[in-house]
Design a protein that fits this description.
Layout (H helix, E strand, L loop, with lengths): L5 E6 L7 H4 L5 H17 L3 E6 L9 E2 L5 E6 L4 E9 L2 H13 L4 E2 L10 H9 L4 E6 L5 H18 L3 E6 L17 H15 L2 H4 L4 H7 L4 H10 L4 E10 L6 E9 L6 H17 L3 H16 L11 H4 L5 E7 L2 E7 L8 H14 L15 E8 L3 E3 L11 E6 L2 E5 L9 H12 L8 E5 L1 E4 L1
Parallel strand pairs: 1-8, 2-7, 2-8, 3-6
Antiparallel strand pairs: 1-10, 4-5, 9-10, 11-12, 11-13, 13-18, 14-17, 15-16, 15-17
Length: 455
Amino acid sequence: MKSESLQAYLVPHPPLIVPEVGGKREIPITRAAYGKVAAEIAALKPDTLVIFSPHSILYADYFHISPGKSASGDFGQFRAQQVKISVEYDAELAALIGDLAQADGIAAGSLGERDSKLDHGVMVPLYFFKAPSVVRIGLSGFSLETHYRFGMCVRKAIERLGRGAAIIASGDMSHKLKADGPYGFDPAGPVHDEFVKECLERGDFRKLLTIDPSLAEAAAECGLRSIIMLAGAMDGCDITSEVYSYEGPYGVGYLTAAVRGGGRRASLLPDIIADKKAKLAALRDAEDEFVRLARQNVEHFVKTGKTIAPPGNLPPGLTERRAGVFVSIKKNGDLRGCIGTIAPICDSIALEIIQNGVSAASHDSRFEPIAPDELEELTYSVDVLAEPEPIADKSQLDVKRYGVIVTHGRKRGLLLPNLEGVDTVEQQISIALQKGGIRGSEPYTIERFEVVRHK
């Protein structure tokens, strides 16, 4: 296999596809596609398989590349401990990938390994695909654009060493395709999978990076970032892509595809960056007065350390009303800070937004304070709370319509309504109890409230 050409594959990792695990539970369409990929890899005879796995070591701000000379694992967690997988690592290629990523300003390397055992996201493909050595790479909490750039570093390292390599992007699609599946159903599941499948069929990686992060989160996928890294590895190549199979028999989407790269074309990265900037600019243009005030105040505070005075042209709804307010800040679709007040403590909603925006940006204990170089990537929402009302029990709750407040003595926990990933009243109450430091065995009262969400 020559290094000037590169082949990559997206494969799912259902343990059921391993005969010793699945037994008679068949995934015939995916199994046939796996066989096709295995035959192609055998014909390629690559020196190294570079495998991206969502179940390897994951950090929010670091790409972990497994260190050492070798590793092993087994399927014991799936009641097949006798099935063991062992690999030799391509340490030279792994080290160069980390070095090139660091040179590009991307935190990556072999630090922080807590467990060297192979994960099933790697072992399922390696049950079928063989090569003399492997590079195992986990995903991160970085943006999709950064995953794409990291994939570009992978390709650069492969070319610099002249490796004959194939890339395996391990990952399942939505886990919420069926009501009777292990994760239930969400309408976002089929929409997400069709979008990703269509992008792969067309080889349209630019469109793939425009996916709404909230769609991917609601779909409960685990393969998107693996695919984006694969796409980055193919940046600058003339590509052909082919979807070999898609099915979701157990409520989880299994998508298998091949992407082949050869020749040269212009990099997509400038277009990807331009698309991201245009999307953020459109959000800025669509802001109402509530969101605009939150953003302008946070930007001013992060840059100067001071809050702004409410502008003189604000509508009465901001200046003459009082209410509890939550300000939420996101970066690349992920929460970056959220602080609010259940009841008003300021003389107006405008002042409440200003105060809570500063707190969300600098005092949310879950996050580091926002830095100036992050401001261009942030999006905001403002929730204005109605007066809470006590209720008798959880039957009077609705996770989409009502937020919840749980109280035990001086302990109090609140959760806003209509949050991504919170699908049941039981989840809503459990999270609120946890936030309030209240044990489920302790007696507590419940209040509900409605909000007006400004985005």
